[in-house]
Amino acid sequence: MLPRLVPFAAVLLLAAGAPATGEGSQQRVVHLGDYAFRPATIEVVVGRPVELTLINDDRLTPHNLTLDAAGAGLDVDVDVKGGKEAVVRFTPSAIGRFPFHCNKKLLFMKSHRDHGMVGDLVVTAVPQGP
Question: Which helix (H) or strand (E) holds 76?
């Protein structure tokens, strides 16, 4: 019997990371909290696996990272509970600037996106400067 395949966006692990070296995985850490992503711009190289560690710095408020560009290998929708971490892995297949946001919203309140919780994934052909 063959193992069941799980979409990459569903792979969540507890972990921490630092920028990758060489040709391996590109590891980035993104903090979520106070209606912001830090950093708000994430730069990676096309065709190389990416591992984003998402850390929710808000103790109670859940956040999310949603990036919908399936044609570029970027179909990410990851929830991160308050005070928790999650890891998502993907490999971008196209060069460009791809916006992401938090899709959370409380009843009768502005969405986190409307509060400015947005960012960009910048996918380049070669690594950018230091």
Answer: strand 74-80
